[in-house]
Specification:
Largest sheet: 5 strands, parallel
Helix content: 25-40%
Number of helices: 5
Order of helices and strands: EHEHEHEHHE
Structural class: alpha/beta
Radius of gyration: 14 Å
Distance between the termini: 19 Å
């Protein structure tokens, strides 16, 4: 399998412990995640600071705009960053170490479509 550059997008709000677990699971993937964007919806529990310490790019909203706004902002940034694929998930998703590798097995079939998707979920 070729090395696709994957950007993971994680909207979050006040779930610091889950966010940390999710980021650690992303770092443990057998196919590496090239970049992680955490979109913080005005957390007050230190979630943004934790994400920054973990090496994620952090986007902070001044008020809670919801998960959809978080995905929109994260995907927009990933697109501008030129990543091959965007992997979107909620902050309470804890992927198994081979989850991304398994998702990427579908890419050859997806790339043959007239209008292939740009995100993995």
């Amino acid at each position: 399998m070729s090395q696709y550059r994957i950007c993971a997008i994680l909207p979050t709000r006040n779930r610091k412990a889950l966010l940390q677990e999710c980021i650690q699971a992303l770092k443990a993937q057998t196919h590496p995640v090239a970049h992680i964007i955490v979109v913080d919806n005005a957390s007050t529990d230190g979630s943004a600071e934790l994400a920054a310490r973990e090496g994620a790019e952090v986007v902070q909203f001044e008020r809670n705009l919801g998960g959809a706004a978080g995905f929109h902002e994260g995907i927009s940034r990933a697109y501008r960053g030129g990543y091959d694929w965007v992997w979107i998930m909620d902050d309470d998703t804890i992927p198994q170490p081979n989850a991304l590798a398994e998702l990427l097995k579908a890419v050859p079939r997806l790339e043959r479509l007239d209008h292939p998707p740009a995100a993995l979920a």
